[in-house]
Amino acid sequence: MMTGCDDFLEERPFKSEAVVPKTVEDMELILAGAYRADEMTHYLLFSSDDVKPNVDLYKGLTSLYPIQDIHATLWEREVSAKNYQDYFWVYRYQNVFGSNMVLSILPGSVATEAEKQRLKSQACFKRAYNNFLLVNLYALPYSSANLQEAGIPLKKSTSFDEAVERATIEETYQLIEEDITEALKLDVALTDAIGFNSPNRVTTPAVYAFAARFYLAKHDYKNAQLYAEKALDEYGVDKIKDLNNFGYSLNSPEPRSITINGQEVNYELNYPASYQNYDPSFWTESYFDATVEADNNNWRFPSQELMATYDLDGSKATDLRWKYFFVEHYSYITGSTYDYPAYMFDTYMTHSGTNVPEMLLIKAECQARLGQWQDGLSTANILRAKRIDPAGVIDLSASSQDEAIKKILEERRREMPITMRWYDLRRYNNNDYAGDDVVVTKTFFPYTDLDIQGNEPLKTYTLEKNDRRYAAPIPNSEIISSNGVIEQNTY
User: Whole-angstrom Cα distance, residue 421 to residue 423?
Assistant: First the structure.
């Protein structure tokens, strides 16, 4: 058998035998099989106030924080751009290339007009989705003041000769909106044969949900609410996982022990059921699945401020998100002698794609911002009924529009911690409402290009609301390979 394999592998392919994609199946494979769904980036994981470097955790295990993580969490930009490979940029543009390939193949493809329209809509969705991620990391936040600031290179073809200079933020958002408009022509249910009952595929409710997220980032609350409602009409509240009927996985609780100062400390790790085998068909809440991955555990350790939000309207004793997704004593298994919990929805990642709870929260926020704040609270309370033990305070209440907005944004933070918070900080600080502004501060040791200066006095680091460091640095390798045509952000 092995001899046969050798004979086969030693056959040299001819260029004339190369397969040129032209069928529906070919293009579906380009959009699905070769598509990178992960959104891995240290900037997204560490930059917000949901994750902060913890002095006591560091003292308990000085090797816990790689210097790359510290540079990201404290908004260092020059060293990060030069020293670290940023795959987020590379993978997003790989996905854009795949979409452009399908769009270039479509005119001469073997497909019906209906199939061509479906594939065009799906390709435009994925190009829009990836461009949205890029502009919301490497450019300044969307605002009227920033429209003429540098956005991202807009790739519309598969040609390597296409210009790579950065378009403006305004031009970038215009292309994204044009692609969303094309994607909205799609007519594919999440649960039908073409959708494969999978949030990894582009479906009509997935397009609606992304449109809601897009218009929210533009502070267009009317359209954001409109598309959130459309998404919910297509695939809605009945799909939300009721945490009152959630349950632990079979191998929890897991007994462990650690020796601290010569004393054995016994503890238990209670992992949520979703930790061992995340399965979208089990979870049911997703419109379009995407993940944020990290090669270490540091992002799992939430800030004290994030954890405190679970005690504001529903105490930790009755907020089931705290019960199931924050694993007490997790720091011990990293080797730290300091006891600290971790956020553990999934084994190696946290999820950042659009889902039903996000649409409810977008609808609630838009209602509140547009003056219908009592309705906004009622919408948020639909979600809380699935997240709070009946023994706790389920319904949010407020006596004014400002208080209602505050309560709804707190609920959003509890429901979508860490991966969505950086995007939220960008838009909160760049709309016309001062009540949601956030100045982020973090306290940690000084650092150099190479290490943490753990013996020096602590220092407070601040990110002001209009700080240009809200734009992550473009990888220096990309600037070099473009011969300087791509310009770095200025800080």
Answer: 5
Structure tokens at 344: 């553990």
What residue spans define the domains of the chain?
30-243+353-481
CA dihedral 223, 413, 379, 381 (to 10 degrees): 180
Alpha-carbon gap, residue 349 to 345, rounded angstroms: 8
Residue 417 carries which side chain, given as an amino acid letter? P
pLDDT tens by residue, 269-312: 888 877 766 666 677 899 998 877 766 667 789 999 999 999 98
- Could you tell me the pTM of the whole model? 0.93
- Beta-carbon contacts of residue 356 (< 8 Å; ≥ 6 apart): 231, 232, 235, 236, 237, 239, 240, 285, 286, 287
Work out the angle between the directed axes of helices 401-415 and 373-384 (0-180°, nearest 10): 30
Q: Which of 111, 113, 97 is nearest to 22 (CA)?
A: 111
Q: Do the beta carbons of residue 157 and residue 225 sit within 8 Å?
A: no
Q: 177-215 b/e with 16+ CB inside 10 Å = b?
A: bebbebbbebebebeeebbeeebbbbbbbbbbbbbbbbb
Q: Are 124 and 99 in contact (CB under 8 A)?
A: yes
- Closest by CA to 317, choosing from 265, 371, 392, is 392
CATH of domain 30-243+353-481: 1.25.40.390
DSSP designation for 47: S
DSSP 53: -
CA Rg, the chain, in Å?
24
Q: What is the per-residue DSSP string for 401-431?
A: HHHHHHHHHHHHHHHSTTTTHHHHHHHHTTS
488: three-class secondary structure by DSSP: coil
**Residue range 382-409, pLDDT digits in tens:** 999 999 999 999 999 999 999 999 999 9
> CA–CA separation, 363 vs 361, rounded Å?
5
The CA distance from 423 to 136, in Å, is 7
